[in-house]
Design a protein that fits this description.
about 5% helix, mainly beta, rod-shaped, nine-stranded parallel beta sheet
């Protein structure tokens, strides 16, 4: 009428206050010039504030609320800060920047004593399965009760197995693999050194490339090999191939 847009509260139990304010939603409240409260139980407070969704609240000029049961204090490109917010104390309370800074300080202190990096080739994280299992590093897996895997690609895949080093592998129960690509495959086996391998139960390999292939065999020294049952090879490239044999 005469170019004016009327105020309209058309929703049941709705309230509209202000030039062009419009409250079509049930129990909706629109306060402000050209403020529409469309959703049920919505509130638009401020000029051009819009509350479209049910239970939504738009606070301030130009604020836009289009998700149910949310509060908006601005719009995309016209955001506002909420100031003078007390520290939250309950699970559903908002937190303030001071509280976030406290969390960041704790995280920074923790990072000081533990750091790990990955590679561009993989984004796999650490994985654990089993009671008291621990895994640290990119693509590490500790699967088994008490299993421990440390280092990128380390895998401890049995109860109480321990794998430490890049791509170290401990498969046997209570086995230990220490070093780059070290492999402890038998139960209670031990492999220490780059590419060291302990294959059978109770076997032990110490040194780069040492191989203990027989049960309870021991290979000590770079590229030493103990093949037979309870065989012992001591020294660089020593080979003990018979059962209970010794090579020095």
């Amino acid at each position: 009428f005469f170019g004016f847009i009327p105020t309209e509260a058309s929703g049941d139990y709705s309230v509209a206050v202000g030039g062009g304010a419009w409250a079509p939603g049930t129990n909706a409240t629109a306060v402000g010039n050209f403020a529409p409260a469309v959703g049920e139980n919505s509130l638009a407070l401020g000029g051009d504030a819009t509350a479209e969704a049910d239970g939504s609240v738009a606070l301030g000029q130009g604020s836009f609320a289009d998700r149910e049961n949310t509060v908006s204090v601005g719009d995309v490109g016209s955001e506002r800060q909420i100031t003078n917010v007390a520290a939250g104390t309950e699970d559903t309370d908002a937190v303030n920047v001071s509280q976030l800074n406290e969390v960041a300080a704790v995280a920074e202190n923790t990072d000081k004593y533990f750091q790990a990096s990955g590679s561009a080739d993989s984004d796999a994280g650490a994985y654990v399965e089993g009671d008291n299992a621990t895994a640290a590093g990119e693509a590490t897996n500790a699967i088994g009760a008490g299993a421990s895997a440390y280092g990128s690609g380390a895998n401890a895949l049995a109860d109480n197995a321990t794998a430490v080093g890049f791509n170290a592998l401990a498969v046997g129960i209570s086995s230990t693999a220490l070093g780059d690509n070290a492999q402890a495959l038998g139960d209670q086996s031990v492999a220490v050194g780059q590419n060291a391998t302990a294959v059978e139960v109770g076997s032990s390999a110490f040194g780069e490339g040492a191989q203990a292939e027989g049960a309870y065999a021991t290979a000590t020294g770079a590229e030493s090999v103990a093949v037979g049952l309870q065989a012992t090879a001591n020294g660089f490239r020593a080979e003990a191939t018979g059962d209970a044999s010794t090579a020095v």
